[in-house]
Amino acid sequence: MTHRFLHCFIVTVAVVLAASYAVVSDIHAQAPAPAGARDGNPAAKPTPHLADGRPDLNGTWEHGAGFAFLRPRTLPDGSVCVLGCPPEATTAPAGGNAQGGRGGRGGAAAAPAPPAAPNFPKYKPEFLGKVKDLSDRQVRTDTVLQCQPPGVPRIGPPAKIVQNAHEVVFLYDDVNGSFFRIVPTDGRQHRKGLPASYLGDAIGHWEGDTLVIETVNFNEETWLIDNGAFHTKDLKVVERLRRVGDVIEYQASAQDSAVLVEPWTRGQALRLSDHELEESARCEDRDLEHVIDGSHHDNPR
User: Fold this and answer.
1) Could you list the residue range(s) of the whole structural domain that residue 196 is in?
2) Gyration radius from the chain CA atoms
3) pLDDT tens figures, 67-91
């Protein structure tokens, strides 16, 4: 299922969802609560450790999957909007019409720049035009809409972690499919001679009870986040994971001094879940060549 097919499917049922937003609430209410959440504050529970003394990061971790990406909003008139909502009062990335990114131009009329995320990377002034151009032509320039891996840190925190004394494995249940990252924690350095990739080359080490992961060697096909937030081949991402009870405090910092004024950081809390991962739906790009309208496409991240 493509990102755009998913969007079309959701639009098909949007009227039903909007008319009965309680259904979404019921789905959340009926789903099993994350482990620990049913017993009060999950962060107050004892933090388990492995035999080597390291915090135990094993498990499935909940951080807003499922219907969360619909982001229902209550409008000023009291109605509930699920998709195609009017823009909120935020500021779009500024800049001119510099060229950049993949693909050709969109439809006959250029779509207005979408609202920027509240926590948007700070670009050097000479690159603001490129950010705006990529965002305006997002349907053709965002490789996530072409079934490609979203990259790091855009993919977000892992949905499942498998850990031993020598490595941790991150498993992802993404709208574009299932992805994995293998992170050695045995002291080795970054590998030499690897081709640049979507998810890069990661190595990890422990700083006390915090797992620190450094990832480099990215290609330039991904964005840091939505709305044209491009990066260069010099991108380095540092992630920090610290378990407290049944919660993981996750933070990712993107460093790319070639284009960013300062490192861009995002963070969120993950809760241990009773759910298990399932196979992701297959992403297949079939309709880009048929696009006739370059209107901006909301992403679920």
Assistant:
1) 3-290
2) 20
3) 333 344 566 776 655 445 565 543 3
Concatenated DSSP letters of 132-192 = HHHHHTHHHH-GGGGT----TTTT-S-SEEEE-SSEEEEEEEETTEEEEEEEE-SS--PPS
In a domain, 74, yes or no: yes
Distance of CA 239 to the CA centre of its chain: 13
Residues in the chain: 301
State residue 54's pLDDT score: 96
Instruction: List the one residue out of 220, 216, 268 whose CA is nearest residue 240.
Output: 268
Burial of 86 (0-12, 13-18, 19+ CB in 10 A): exposed
Task: Work out how many domains the chain is built from and give that number.
Answer: 1
Q: Is residue 155 part of a domain?
A: yes
Q: Are 217 and 194 within 8 A, CB to CB?
A: yes
Structural domain contains residue 301: no
Q: What is the separation, in whole angstroms, between the first and last Cα of the chain?
A: 17
Question: pTM of the predicted model, to two decimals?
Answer: 0.70
Q: Among 4, 28, 301, which Cα is nearest to 174's?
A: 301
Phi, psi of 45 (to 5 degrees): -75, 160
Query: Which one-letter amino acid corresponds to residue 20?
Result: S
264 φ/ψ angles, rounded to the nearest 5 degrees? -105, 125
- The verdict on residue 54 lying in a domain is yes
Name the nearest CA neighbour of 217 among 204, 203, 201, 237.
201
Element (H, E) at 25: helix 21-30
